[in-house]
Amino acid sequence: MVSLFWIVSDSLFTKDHTMFSFLFSPATTPWLLELGLLIIRVVAGVVTVYFGFPKLMGGPAVWTSVGKDAGLIGIHFLPILWGFLSIAAQTFGGAALVLGLGTRIACVPLAITMVVAILYHLNKGEGFGDYALALILLAVYAGFLLIGSGKLSVDYWLHKKKTQPAEYHPLMQRPEDYL
């Protein structure tokens, strides 16, 4: 009887690799990389929408309360506007992350919002556990700002329709020379 382990390992790995070498190898296959980016992007987007949507539905009182925190970065006028923009960034930027639509653009206001959230918790004298989620999300947004949303995204499919990308960038003919 063939065990499930061997069926899975034969479908995921070549004959030269074992499960042990896969788990401890820094290299990965391109489809696993893309799947990993998708998982991180979707989870971060869902978490962002989860925290943003109730604030959006809270109305002007909540928007003003959130907007007052912009004072931590020197913005003291129109707190209702800054609060609404921050909350809209969380809600709609999080949805954009889930889809992988305008990911780099969405990550800019999301990252700024997380910086303000971290400063808010630090200003109140709270500990690391209180701002850890904001710090993790800031790192995720910065990462997607740098690398984009990956191939399993709307961004990729829209860009692919416009251009037929070369296998490698023209300035990087042999990627192995740079690794």
Characterise the protein shown here.
The structure is a single chain. The protein has 179 residues and is mainly α. It has one domain (36-164). It has helices at residues 4-12, 19-23, 30-57, 60-67, 79-99, 103-123, 128-147, 154-162. The radius of gyration is 21 Å and the shape is globular. The mean pLDDT is 84.
The main sheet comes to: none
Write the H/E string, N to C: HHHHHHHH
Strand fraction: under 5%
Helix amount: 55-70%
Distance between the termini: 43 Å
- Please, how many helices? 8
Average pLDDT confidence is 84
Structural class: mainly alpha
Specify Rg, calculated over alpha carbons.
Answer: 21 Å
Low-confidence stretches: none
Number of domains: 1
Kindly state the number of beta strands. 0
* Molecular shape: globular
How is the secondary structure organized here?
Elements: H1 4-12, H2 19-23, H3 30-57, H4 60-67, H5 79-99, H6 103-123, H7 128-147, H8 154-162
Helix pairs in contact: 3-5, 4-5, 5-6, 6-7
